[in-house]
């Protein structure tokens, strides 16, 4: 049996929208709506979907950077929060736990404080949590730089003196400085050139191997996810519509939305001319999502039932879960 590191259950994050009139009912943007999944120790789980599907909000809500509207998150044997049970980890306990749960952000330019030199940036957590003696902090900074492929001679430089790829390496060095067990990576390569992307991904794989970490890898790039992740969760309009092993998902996906996403991925192979599932139209607004299956207005296989009933996420065999009436 696999060892569960993170357990997310029925996670919800609703943002209230401005009322159109005093007597109008309060409406909400359901950015994350009933999301459940697990991450096992040492596993890389991909979270994919179009822009606006709620991927980043899931990552931030798990870390309690934004407050959840509903659901629960458990890390190892500790409950971070359980909204329905009225449980919430105390602030000082949560701060300590954050040593084990770190985040690498999408924008390597905005995520580093321009007024701090690299040594201060990557040792900020070590100083705060006193995880190593004061006399050894510089040595630790040199080690982190070497681990992340950076020159220790640059420790006194400032973020603007580095390229995008180097800044992302600094962000990774900061994330691993406290030896976390889980890193939530929010599109960590989206702002980088293609050649730099592969270097950063290889570095992340090496570090994960060395430190036995798990990643939640948020991305819209299915090509990267296929090669980088063990398991993949596909999100559409705030909900998970499919979860499967990466190999299974990319060869035998069950949900029409996943199929359409895969069809939309650029490939050097001869394009299919028949039987393609095309993703048409824009993703609907999460403030007024469609009834029943949220994908039905864009689904080429939609039936009458799809607009009336929301399909549940069901196991169709071997841990492959999908939410589609066609698979029941
Ligand atoms: Fe398409 Fe219906 Fe399946 Fe939704 S439930 S993905 S609309 S077939």
Structure description:
The protein has helices at residues 55-62, 91-97, 118-129, 137-147, 164-176, 194-211, 222-228, 246-252, 256-264, 304-308; strands at 4-17, 27-40, 44-48, 70-75, 78-82, 87-88, 101-104, 182-186, 214-219, 231-236, 239-245, 314-315, 321-322. The mean pLDDT is 91. The chain has a domain at 1-18 and 26-100 and 221-265 and 278-319: P-loop containing nucleotide triphosphate hydrolases (Rossmann fold, 3-Layer(aba) Sandwich). Strand 8 (182-186), helix 6 (194-211) and strand 9 form a beta-alpha-beta unit. The chain is globular, with a radius of gyration of 21 Å. The chain is an alpha/beta fold and 328 residues long. An eight-stranded mixed sheet has the order 7-8-9-3-10-11-13-12, with helices on both faces. The protein has a five-stranded antiparallel sheet with strand order 2-1-4-5-6. It has ten helices and 13 strands. The structure holds iron/sulfur cluster. Iron/sulfur cluster (SF4) binds next to loops. Iron/sulfur cluster is lined by residues 255-256, 293, 295-296, 299, 301-303, 306, 311, 324-326.
Ions, cofactors and other ligands present here are: iron/sulfur cluster
Number of strands: 13
Portion of residues in helices? 25-40%
- Summed over residues and divided by their number, the pLDDT gives a mean of 91
- Helical stretch tally: 10
How much of the polypeptide forms β-strand, as a percent range? Answer: 15-25%
The CATH class of the domain at 1-18 and 26-100 and 221-265 and 278-319: Alpha Beta
Order of helices and strands: EEEHEEEHEHHHEHEHEEHHHEE
What strand order characterises the main sheet? 7-8-9-3-10-11-13-12
């Amino acid at each position: 049996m696999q060892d569960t590191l993170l357990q997310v259950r029925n996670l919800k994050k609703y943002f209230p929208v401005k009322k159109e009139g005093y007597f109008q009912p309060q409406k909400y943007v359901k950015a994350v709506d009933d999301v459940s999944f697990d991450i096992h120790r040492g596993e890389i789980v991909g979270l994919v979907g179009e822009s606006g599907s709620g991927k980043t909000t899931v990552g931030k809500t798990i870390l309690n950077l934004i407050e959840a509207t509903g659901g629960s998150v458990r890390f190892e044997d500790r409950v971070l929060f359980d909204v329905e049970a009225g449980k919430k980890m105390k602030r000082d306990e949560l701060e300590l736990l954050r040593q084990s749960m770190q985040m690498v952000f999408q924008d390597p330019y905005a995520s580093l404080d321009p007024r701090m030199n690299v040594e201060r940036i990557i040792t900020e957590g070590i100083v705060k949590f006193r995880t190593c003696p004061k006399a050894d902090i510089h040595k630790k900074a040199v080690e982190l730089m070497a681990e992340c492929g950076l020159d220790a001679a640059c420790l006194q430089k400032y973020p603007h003196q580095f390229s995008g790829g180097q800044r992302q390496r600094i962000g990774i060095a900061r994330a691993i400085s406290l030896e976390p067990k889980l890193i939530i990576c929010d599109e960590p390569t989206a702002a980088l050139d293609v050649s730099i992307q592969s270097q950063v991904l290889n570095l992340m794989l090496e570090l994960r191997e060395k430190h036995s970490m798990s990643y939640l890898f948020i991305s819209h790039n299915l090509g990267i996810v296929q090669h980088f992740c063990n398991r993949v969760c596909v999100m559409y309009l705030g909900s998970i519509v499919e979860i499967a092993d990466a190999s299974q998902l990319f060869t035998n996906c069950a949900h029409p939305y996943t199929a359409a996403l895969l069809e939309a991925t650029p490939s050097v192979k001869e394009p299919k001319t028949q039987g393609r599932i095309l993703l048409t139209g824009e993703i609907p607004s999460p403030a007024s999502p469609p009834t029943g299956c949220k994908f039905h207005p864009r689904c080429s296989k939609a039936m009458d039932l799809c607009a009336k009933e929301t399909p549940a996420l069901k196991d169709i065999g071997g841990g492959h879960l999908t939410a589609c009436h066609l698979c029941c």
